[in-house]
Design a protein that fits this description.
Blueprint lengths: L11 E5 L6 H14 L4 E5 L5 H11 L8 H25 L3 E5 L2 H11 L4 H12 L6 E6 L2 H9 L14 H17 L4 E5 L4 H13 L9
Parallel strand pairs: 1-3, 1-4, 2-3, 4-5
């Protein structure tokens, strides 16, 4: 009778940063780099990632006439995240595949916590309820000056500012400061990447960070 070896859970890699940091492009780079090193990867994003979570994303981002309070915004983020974690992230990790996610709970801590002033204890309680002990194995914080990031975001071809991109410079300064504070608190998990550097240099720094992951699955 044959015995099947247990599957090692996959790893969760997240990318964080303000608007214009290049998260979407660099998430694709991370996914491709891991694939070249023998890792099966699922690339996803927040808010969103599943069909229903993407519908919540539309509510969060659209600039409608009805106001959305910071608390409501936070609850919507976690509603989308709950769907995402239950229906995509946990099943993928359980199969032994890795997940590369453009934003996760650190974004809520930075945007709704530091940016909007939502109580950190509430955010932590919601995080515990929604994903428990599931935390990113590595978080790549793509950091750059706020003015540079907003200039990139607002000059992208066909770009129309959503609720967040239309925010003030001061809001994003608080968000950036929030991200950097998170990185200081968890230096083992976070890797701060200078996103203002040329793309090739940014990719090199990310590759170096990924190569340091304690993963048996990585092939040279």
């Amino acid at each position: 009778m044959s015995t099947r070896m247990p599957v090692s859970p996959g790893k969760l890699i997240t990318l964080e940063g303000i608007e214009g940091a290049g998260k979407s492009t660099l998430a694709q780079f991370v996914s491709a780099w891991l694939g070249r090193h023998g890792i099966t990867v699922r690339l996803t994003r927040e808010p969103g990632g599943t069909a229903l979570a993407e519908r919540v994303r539309q509510i969060v981002l659209e600039r409608g006439a009805e106001p959305v309070s910071p608390i409501t915004e936070t609850l919507l983020m976690f509603a989308a995240r709950a769907l995402h974690v239950q229906n995509l992230i946990r099943p993928t990790l359980a199969r032994g595949e890795w997940v590369v996610c453009d934003r996760f709970t650190d974004a809520t801590r930075a945007y709704q916590g530091s940016g909007r002033g939502v109580d950190a204890a509430l955010i932590d309680a919601l995080a515990l309820a929604v994903h428990g002990d599931l935390q990113p194995d590595c978080t790549l914080l793509l950091d750059l000056p706020v003015r540079a990031g907003l200039a990139r975001a607002r000059t992208r071809p066909g770009a129309t500012a959503d609720r967040f991109e239309a925010e003030s410079l001061g809001f994003f300064e608080k968000v950036r400061a929030g991200y950097l504070a998170l990185a200081r608190r968890e230096p083992q998990r976070f890797r701060i990447i200078d996103a203002a550097a040329p793309l090739a240099e940014v990719e090199q720094r990310i590759a170096e960070a990924l190569a340091q992951l304690p993963a048996r699955e990585l092939r040279a």
